[in-house]
Amino acid sequence: MQVFITRRIPDNAQELLQKAGFTVSVFDKDRAIKKDELIKFSKNADAIVSLLSDKITKEVIDSLPRCKIIANFAVGYNNIDVEYAHSKGIVVTNTPDILTDATADIAMSLTLACARHICAAQNYMLEQKFVGWKPKLFLGIELRNKIFGVVGAGRIGQETAKRAKAFGMRIVYYNRSKKNEFENGTSAKKVSLKKLLKIADVVSLHLPLAGNTFHLLNRESLDLLKNTAILINTARGEIVDEKYLISLLKKKKIFAAGFDVYEGEPKVNKALLKLENVVILPHIGSATFEARNSMAKLAAENIINVLNGKKPITPI
Ligand code: NAP
Ligand code: GLV
Q1: For the segment 123-137, what is each residue's pLDDT rounded down to a tens digit?
Q2: Residue 91 in 3-state DSSP?
Q3: Is the CB of 6 under 6 A from ligand 1?
Q4: Residue nearest to atom 3 of ligand 2 (CA)
Q5: Is the separation of the CB atoms in 147 and 172 below 8 Å?
Q6: What positions carry a catalytic annotation?
Q7: What's the pTM?
Q8: Which pLDDT tens digit goes with each residue over 70-111?
Q9: Is the sign of the CA dihedral 175, 178, 180, 181 positive or negative?
């Protein structure tokens, strides 16, 4: 049986799949695969390892007559028409849990970097502007006793909140269901989205992108943010009306924003490159050796199970 991997991922995936007796081919260019290439190279595949940048649409799924499993190398799966894949009898899997700490670390890093102007201060040094200690140079915001608002208190949201609590912050969260264990462990309070946006000093987004979360933070909701607020997005760019957020940042209507993800990725709105009150990262939430190796292993194990007639480990 044949497995197609849409881009080079850690070698352990290929090794495991070959050891299990499968023929593995990898799209070996250092760029995201294009739709036509994806269709061409995966047409004989019994399984595919896809990336979050691969759009697995109805058209693509219709061109996969032999495929039994699409193993997404990510926890988010908004790139896949899961319902359609299921209707064709194709199993879809993702890589939850093993990237939670890595992504929570990035959300907290963005929080600290925004609160203390870390990137603007580094640029100042690189531009050799530092001529000595100054009483009012890069004054930032302390986190202790401030309110950390988690939007989407799932795996990553909860882990990020635990980090914020360790910095002395009080936690509020907005989520579909109540999270009792999380509340008991962190004294977090469940509030409405409106209330969270009004009271939080840091708002950190951790929802999946779906029809009901697209532009959840629109003009109306973004206008509720305090002018001292910091907004962190490590979830998906499309959850926020990015253009409007940029207009607020330009007018200094909020303190700062930290981005790991962008609306219309991989495009990045050029205005973000010029703003001092933003920290921008190239979608590196899960980019640790530990997380990426575990993600490759899990994707391979899901495929091995399904192609051997067993249950997948992490089905969607
Ligand atoms: P998760 O455990 O499924 O958490 C998502 C949370 O959002 C759940 O608590 C869920 O509530 C809640 N939720 C979903 N839809 C909602 C809605 N419409 N309104 C209110 N709450 C809603 O997922 P995760 O593992 O934490 O990952 C979250 C997202 O982070 C992923 O989908 C992905 O897009 C993003 N991510 C980004 C990176 C990166 O590199 N930047 C890395 C990993 C993940 P229930 O529990 O009630 O269902
Ligand atoms: C990364 O963005 C993921 O969803 O795993």
Answers
A1: 999 999 999 999 999
A2: strand
A3: no
A4: 74
A5: yes
A6: 236, 265, 283
A7: 0.98
A8: 999 999 999 999 999 999 999 999 999 999 999 999 999 999
A9: negative
Stretch(es) of the chain classified as CATH 3.40.50.720: 2-98+288-307, 100-280
Quick one: tokens of 84?
């359609």
Q: Distance between CA atoms of 91 and 24, rounded to whole angstroms?
A: 19
Q: Contact 200/148 with Cβ under 8 angstroms?
A: yes
The amino acid at residue 294 is S
Please state which CATH number belongs to domain 100-280.
3.40.50.720
CA atoms 116, 122, 128, 131: torsion sign: positive
The CATH homologous superfamily to which domain 2-98+288-307 belongs is NAD(P)-binding Rossmann-like Domain (3.40.50.720)
Contacts of 277 (CB under 8 A, 6+ apart): 114, 120, 249, 252, 254, 255, 256, 257
Say what the pLDDT of residue 300 is.
98
Bin 283: left if φ > 0, else alpha if -120 < ψ < 50, else beta: left
Report helix, strand or coil for 116: coil
Q: What is the pLDDT of residue 273?
A: 96
Ligand 1 pocket mutation pick from 175, 179, 234 by most atoms within 8 angstroms of CB: 175
For residue 266, whether the previous peptide bond is cis, meaning omega lies within 30 degrees of 0, is yes
Q: Which of helix, strand or coil describes residue 148?
A: strand
